[in-house]
Automatic annotation (TrEMBL):
It comes from Sus scrofa. One of its GO terms (cellular component) is membrane. It is found in: Membrane. The keyword Cell division does not apply. Heme binds at residue 413. This is Uncharacterized protein. Belongs to the cytochrome P450 family. Residues 1-18 form the signal peptide. PANTHER family: CYTOCHROME P450 CYP4F13-RELATED, CYTOCHROME P450 FAMILY 4. It comes from the Eukaryota. Its cofactor is heme.
C-alpha cells in the first residue's frame, strides 16, 4: 500500500498526485495562477491576515499572555490567507472556529496518523475505525464547500461571459485561484473540468505555499521502524542520514550519503501541507531571530526605514525587493530549518554518482534536504545561523542545488514566490510590532512531513511602541 492512496480520496488527481502528460497539462494550466500580476493582489490579503494575528497577540499580551506557540498562531493565519486567495472567502478562522478549516486540519492530521500506523493502511480496516469515519466525513465537508464555490462561480461566468467576468473581477481586484482555473485554457481551447478544479483547489489548500510534486515510493515493509513500534521511520531517517539523531537539536558528524536507494514502484512521498510549510518556515525564522537579537534589530530597522511614518503600516508588492537583509534571514532559516526535511524522486534514467556507483533507472531516491543544507563541505559550521551566507553583495561559489527549500527541477514548487512573498510580508510586520524573545526551554526538532518542534515552538512576544496596525 502506497502513501499517495491515503491522499487521493481528499485531493483527487491534482497537480500533486498526477504524473506524465496529465501532470504536464495541469502544470501548464496552473502556471498563470502564480504569475506576478496575480500574486500582487494577494499582498493585501497577507497584510490583513497578519494584522488580525497581531491584534490577537496584542490582546493576549495585555492580558499577560506573552508566551505563544508560533506554529499554532501562524498556521491559522496562513490558512486564513489561503482561504481568501483560493475562494475569496473570509471564515474569520483566526478569531472563531471554522468548520471548513477544522476539517482541513483534521484531514492533514489523519493522513499523517494513517501513514504511521500500518494496520490502518488497508481501506476496509481504516474506514471501520473512528478515524476512518472522521476522514470520510471531513472529505465530504471539504468537497461540498469547494464544489459549491466552483458551481456558483461557473454560473456567473456563463451568465456574464468570460470577458465581462474577467473585467469585473479585475476592476474589483478579486480575481482568485478558482477564477484563474475557470478561465484557464490550453492551446486547443480546452479548459479544466469542475472535478479538476476541485482537485487543484483542495491541493492548494493542502499544499499551497509549499506546493511540491514528488514522485517516489517507500513500501511500508521497508519503513516500519522505531524500536518495538509499527510507526514509520521515514522522517527521523531524514535526520539520521544527515548525522542528526531522532529529535536532536544539534548537528553532529559529517554528511556524505545524502541519497538513499529504494528499488520499489513509483508513488508519492513527503507531501507537505501548505499552511504547515509556511507556518514552519515563519516559526523557525522567528525562533532564529529571537536567538540572535542583533539580526532581529537590523531587520526591524530595515522595515522601519522602508515604512517610515506611513499609515496604515502595510507592505506593498513593489517594496518586497527593498528588504534584502530580511530576505537573507529568511533564506538562512530555510537552510537551517527546511520546512520539508526530505523528498523523493524516481530516476528517469541511470544516474552515475561521482564515485562511479550507478542508481538504475526506475529506482526511488530519498533526498534529505535537511542533510544537503547541513553538509559541512558546502556550508561551514552548518548549525550556525549566519544570514550573510546569502548576502547578494558577496555571492558564494556553490552549486544551485546546495540550497533547495522549494525542491528543484521541473517538478519544483510552483508556489515558491507565493510562499516567499507571504513570509516576507508577515515577518516584516511582526518585527515592526513585536520584539520576539526565546523561550526558557530550547525546542527540539521534530521531523514529520514538515519540520516541527516537539510540543510546539514557543516564543515570547513583547509589543513595541510605534508599531500600531
Amino acid at each position: 500500500m502506497f502513501l499517495y492512496i491515503f491522499l487521493k480520496p481528499w485531493l483527487g488527481v491534482g497537480l500533486l498526485l498526477s504524473a506524465g502528460e496529465k501532470w504536464s497539462h495541469q502544470r501548464r494550466l496552473l502556471t498563470p495562477a502564480f504569475h506576478f500580476d496575480i500574486l500582487k493582489s494577494y499582498v493585501k490579503i497577507f497584510n490583513r491576515s497578519a494584522d488580525i494575528m497581531h491584534a490577537k497577540w496584542q490582546r493576549l499580551a495585555s492580558e499577560g499572555h506573552t508566551r505563544l506557540d508560533m506554529f499554532e498562531h501562524i498556521s491559522l493565519m496562513t490558512l486564513d490567507s489561503l482561504q481568501k486567495c483560493v475562494f475569496s472567502f473570509d471564515s474569520n478562522c483566526q478569531e472563531k472556529p471554522s468548520e471548513y478549516i477544522t476539517a482541513i486540519l483534521a484531514l492533514s492530521a489523519l493522513v499523517i496518523k494513517r501513514c504511521e500506523q500500518i494496520f490502518l493502511h488497508k481501506d476496509f480496516l481504516c474506514y471501520l475505525t473512528p478515524d476512518g469515519r472522521r476522514f470520510r466525513k471531513a472529505c465530504r465537508l471539504v468537497h461540498d464547500f469547494t464544489d459549491a464555490v466552483i458551481q456558483e462561480r461557473r454560473r456567473t461566468l456563463i451568465s456574464q461571459g468570460s470577458q465581462d467576468f474577467l473585467r469585473a473581477k479585475a476592476k474589483a481586484k478579486t480575481l482568485d485561484f478558482i477564477d484563474v482555473l475557470l478561465l484557464a485554457k490550453d492551446e486547443d481551447g480546452k479548459g479544466l473540468s469542475d472535478e479538476d478544479i476541485r482537485a487543484e483547489a483542495d491541493t492548494f489548500m493542502f499544499a499551497g505555499e509549499g506546493l511540491r510534486n514528488r514522485q517516489g515510493s517507500l513500501h511500508v515493509r521497508d519503513l516500519a521502524g522505531g524500536p518495538g513500534s509499527p510507526r514509520l521511520a521515514i522522517f527521523p531517517m531524514l535526520f539520521e542520514v544527515a548525522g542528526v539523531g531522532w529529535g536532536a537539536s544539534y548537528h553532529e558528524g559529517a554528511v556524505d550519503p545524502l541519497v538513499l536507494k529504494y528499488p520499489r514502484d513509483p508513488s508519492l512521498f513527503g507531501c507537505p501541507s501548505g499552511h504547515d510549510t509556511t507556518a514552519s518556515g515563519l516559526s523557525w525564522v522567528l525562533y532564529n531571530l529571537a536567538k540572535h537579537p542583533e539580526y532581529q534589530e537590523r531587520c526591524r530597522q530595515e522595515v522601519q526605514e522602508l515604512l517610515r511614518d506611513r499609515e496604515p503600516k502595510e507592505i506593498e508588492w513593489d517594496e518586497l525587493a527593498q528588504l534584502p537583509f530580511l530576505t537573507m534571514c529568511i533564506k538562512e532559516s530555510l537552510r537551517l530549518h527546511p520546512p520539508v526535511p526530505g523528498i523523493s524522486r524516481c530516476c528517469a534514467q541511470d544516474v552515475v554518482l561521482p564515485d562511479g556507483r550507478v542508481i538504475p533507472k526506475g529506482n526511488i531516491c530519498v533526498i534529505s534536504i535537511f542533510g544537503i543544507h547541513h553538509n559541512p563541505s558546502v556550508w561551514p559550521d552548518p548549525e550556525v545561523y549566519n544570514p550573510f551566507r546569502f548576502d547578494p553583495e558577496s555571492p558564494q561559489k556553490r552549486s544551485p542545488l546546495a540550497f533547495i527549500p522549494f525542491s528543484a527541477g521541473p517538478r519544483n514548487c510552483i508556489g515558491q514566490t507565493f510562499a516567499m512573498t507571504e513570509m516576507k510580508v508577515v515577518l516584516a510586520l511582526t518585527l515592526l510590532r513585536f520584539r520576539v524573545l526565546p523561550d526558557e526551554e530550547e525546542p527540539r526538532r521534530k521531523p514529520e512531513i514538515v519540520l516541527r518542534a516537539e510540543g510546539g515552538l514557543w516564543l515570547r512576544v513583547e509589543p513595541l511602541r510605534g508599531g500600531q496596525q
